[in-house]
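Internal tracking record. Fields below are filled automatically when a chain is submitted to the structure queue. Please do not edit lines marked as system-generated. If the sequence contains nonstandard residues, flag them in the REMARKS field before resubmitting.
Queue: standard
Priority: normal
Entity type: single polypeptide chain
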Amino acid sequence: MNSIELFAGAGGLALATANAGFHHKAVLEWNPNACKTLRQNQADGLDQLKNARIIEGDISTFDFTEYAGRIDLVSGGPPCQPFSIGGKHAGMDDKRNMFPHAVRAVREIAPKAFIFENVKGLLRGSFTNYYQYIIHQLTYPQMIRSGDEEWNDHSARLEKAVTKGSESGLKYNVIYQLLDAADYGVPQHRHRVLIVGIRSDLKLQFSFPQKTHEEDALLHDMWVTGEYWERHRIPKKNRPSVPIQLKSRVQNLRSLFPGMLLPAWRTVRDAIADLPDVAPGESCSKFANHFCNPGARSYAGHTGSPYDEPAKALKAGDHGVPGGENTLRFDDGSVRYFSVRECARIQTFPDDWKFQGSWTESMRQLGNAVPVQMCEVVSKELHRLLLERKVVVHG
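SYSTEM-GENERATED OUTPUT FOLLOWS
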């Protein structure tokens, strides 16, 4: 099944959907360094980008009609700047807001389905009206906002169509869910909203996959069986004690057998322990992008990620990695930056996926990326559903 990836960044979602069985016909991204990353991996022969047309440029000028009737899936992570409901409601017209172009892509291509992801901040109460407006536009993408129509008037028209349940024209059944990547095998707590839409004429029923990993299993492996420490060859004398706040919870887990639990959350140690150690200012040629920048510091509220838990969410920052972020915290309280390769592991990018650009630019790509494994689980479920249906692409 064919797909188009929008706002591709370093390729996290593109990897996920390709691994799920979708074949990219085009991959769009405006950032030059991210495009270099995509081109490098394509040149290296990675299957996920085989035959994909990598397009660097402004999506607002791109004509999607050439792909109409030929694409099964549209996916991407549209950038969304803070939206203000004050004044003339200019936020919806902010050129940095890319959701209108995501909707336009759906309208012009009419794919079988779409997957869009975004930050959990979009679900904050102050964004409620805006978020519902996005969902309603994706439900009825052909109901276009007229030139002089205020966004809230357009939203009202869409709400009437939604409540009426009109089936005329292009319509999608849209659902969304806030997911924690750690629950899907990613060694990182990263909360993302995933929006999935399926064309209504296909009469398909989709639900988000249940989580595949859980915290209780990690606690069981650590504090009941000790399997976690044994696997990492940590001598008993060097193992920490059960944290006080977890003692009662661990006690309840002692009556459970491992087979009663899902696989354990993956930790930073699980993700990077087999990589060679790199000191700040050093690099390792055995693994691409495995070098460690010096100068890491710890700040109140920004104390780095512990080794034996899923990592804190990686950050991008407008002017480089924010202070105290993207660091590994040791038992003595000291910190060092993760290497680019370690961050790639934490985001579940494969080791043969290479990042282009400076340390700052590579870290920005990873800080903006969606975890591959989490989106792959969702994409596989969608691919399975569409494949079983064996429908023709809407023309």
